[in-house]
Amino acid sequence: MGTVQASFDGDSTFSKVSTLHGPESALGKTDRYRCESAPSFATREFETCRDPLLSLRTSLGWYGLLSIFAGSIGILAMIGFLSFLWFGHGSTPEGANAYPLWRRLALSNWMTRTITLSSLVLRFIISIQSIVCTSMLAALILEKHIVRKSQVAHLSVMRAFNNGPFGVLQLLLSWRNRMPLFTLEGFLLLLLTLVTFGLQPTSTILLIDIYDFTIEGNSETTTVPSLIQTNPEALDFLPSYQLDQAAIYAVFGEVASNSTADPDTLGFSDTKVKQRGLLPLLGTENRTSVRKYNGNTMIFNSRVVCAPPNIDATYQIDYTPRGSIFGTMVGSVDYGTSLEHAGASSTAPTAPSGSTIVDFNCGIPSGTVSKSLETSFCFVGGIGWTYPSKVSIETQVPLWNMSQPPGAANQSMYLVFSANLDEQEWSTVTTGHAFANGSIDGEWQSFEVMADRFIKISLCFAAYNFERSLVEMSALGMPKEPQLLMDLVTDEAHNTSEVQQYIGVSEPPETAAQRGILHMNVLSPSIPPITDIESTTATLFYLNQILTWQLTKSRTPNQTFLTCWTCAAGGTSIHPSYSTLFQDIIIASNRSANVIQSLISTLAFTIYYDTVPSFTQAEEVNLAITQVVQAPGECHQGCTGYISIMTLLGVHLLCVTLTTLLHRRHIKYSRYGNLWHTISQVASKELKENFDQANQADDKTIMSKLKIQGKDDLVKLGKIRGGHKVEIKKL
């Protein structure tokens, strides 16, 4: 058996001799039979190698073991769950690919409550572990280090029961000898106290990271306005003129297409068929919140082709009522020959005259600023149209079929003009001046009127119609509706780049997500109930006819539409939201097909949304919209609360781990949760006088007497050599 002999030598020095005998020395079993030196202040010999270390099961009991190990597993589980709450929305915007549980919690507004409940669970586990760790640290201090007699009773009882680390820390801070504070146990006690206090407002700290989070909602059945419920003959036709109103740049769905309107070597420019589905929802906020749509809706189909015109015409000047000078062009255009020269179909239907030659009389605007580019377009007629005096469902203009080639029946013809002559230059033009041979510039026929002054003309065929179909639309990005800001008085500082991007004519071409629109698939033509057929017919008749009526000025040939704002010309002015877009596309890309299709599409959207309030017949569709919920935001917005709590929990688990390891390595006599055991160990001869005095006195009185009488000695828990009782002995 080994013993340790220690002799007192002053206040801070000691000498010790350690002798280890027997099989323990040979085998080196220091893990089970620890030999620890008694403090240098000892005046008696302590036996420290006789008793083995207590197992964790013995020293902590089942409750203590569950608190440490099951509690740590619980904390790790809560860390994982909180991480799930913070990052379960996924990497896609608006939580589109979020985990189902995360979506359910967010959409049911349970995120804040879940975080609060999780915080309560964490605080419960941490409180229990802090109490058990405090007991272990109190035992380590009592068995490994020297303490004051006045505090030994508190410290001993705290091995069994306590209310947390702060009580032990108070004892250490109140001692004259603060050496235990500068030990590993003291450091762990201080750290455990700080972490325990830091984790008390866990819920409050975590809720710092709660933001208004925009999330894609679940697809739900929703009732939307669908059709006009009325007799077609009773329609109040043409209630307004949308070309005089601001265009509605509404979110729409589009069938994917990689086509562009760039002309080929012969000048043939083709937008190909564009299919655009409209959302039956009023208001920008409602439309931009849509992420998925599945159901019937109106689709606007359009295709525009342009080519250099084969014309025979003269140009001359004219005057506005205010005396401003502008140009006019009078002559004929052979649309059949124009298509043939451009390499397109030569089977275009003939005009009422029996040929493909159509007369026209159109205005050309003059600029108010030298060399400014001014634009206009002129409706010269419809291919294969008749012009009844009264429009009804029987006499409506036949609708274009998407399978028809360019220049086929039921298409509108327009001449697009672009000129850079101002009023002064137009005034020098000879009346009835015939065009000289022009030059081909893409889809344009360009005529030089004078040095560096040109009139460019492009012949365009516009085909369009509304139809009702079953579609599915989905957002690949965040839908948006562009705003055109401009000074309506001076036309200065306007910018249509966002609108050009939105309508799909910007260069280079962009994806649906970049444009802020929806991707669309046409599933099939709508199959309404029999009772809906009349309403469907009435609605399509109304939308198609009102659009054609406005684009052809009541289906009257030779109608000029002015797409310049500060120019002089004869014709019909349209709202700047149309004209500035038209002119800016010409300036930016020189694509006449794009400008006609953009104008027709935005006008169609505006007519549709002006008509939606008249849709008294509703229909159910599946709709997924965004919702604003309270949820942890993405960490690029800051995760201060999450990082703070995770750091504190990490430090807490480190404290628990180190404390448990120290307890397993050093504890021989302490048993957590056993009160009689802790009282028995301090009920020694050394403390008998104190117990007798404390029978009718408070702790403060006893501690004062010990200090006054000079008996507040340094003591330690252990066994005296030759004894069998664990007790407190003075050193």
Task: Give structural attributes.
5-stranded mixed beta barrel; alpha+beta; 4-stranded antiparallel β-sheet; 27 strands; rod-shaped; 20 helices; 2 domains; disordered N terminus; 731 residues
CA gyration radius, whole angstroms = 45 Å
- The count of β-strands is 27
**What amount of the residues lies in strands?**
25-35%
Structure annotation, total helices: 20
Uncertain spans:
1-44
- Biggest sheet strand line-up: 7-9-10-20-21
Q: Let me know the largest β-sheet.
A: 5 strands, mixed, barrel
Instruction: Name the structural class.
Output: alpha+beta
Keywords: Membrane, Transmembrane, Transmembrane helix
Transmembrane segments: 60-87, 120-142, 181-199, 642-662
Characterise this structure.
With 731 residues, the chain is α+β, with helices and mostly antiparallel strands. The protein has two domains: 56-212 and 634-700, no CATH class; 221-626, no CATH class. Helices cover 34% and strands 26% of the residues. The chain has 20 helices and 27 strands. Strands 7-9-10-20-21 form a five-stranded mixed barrel. Strands 3, 4, 26 and 27 form a four-stranded antiparallel beta sheet that branches. A hairpin with a 2-residue loop joins strand 19 (444-450) and strand 20 (453-475). Helix 5 runs antiparallel to helix 18 (675-682). The longest helix has 34 residues, at 111-144. The chain is rod-shaped, with a radius of gyration of 45 Å. The model is unreliable at 1-44 (pLDDT under 50). Keywords: Membrane, Transmembrane, Transmembrane helix. The chain crosses the membrane at residues 60-87, 120-142, 181-199, 642-662.
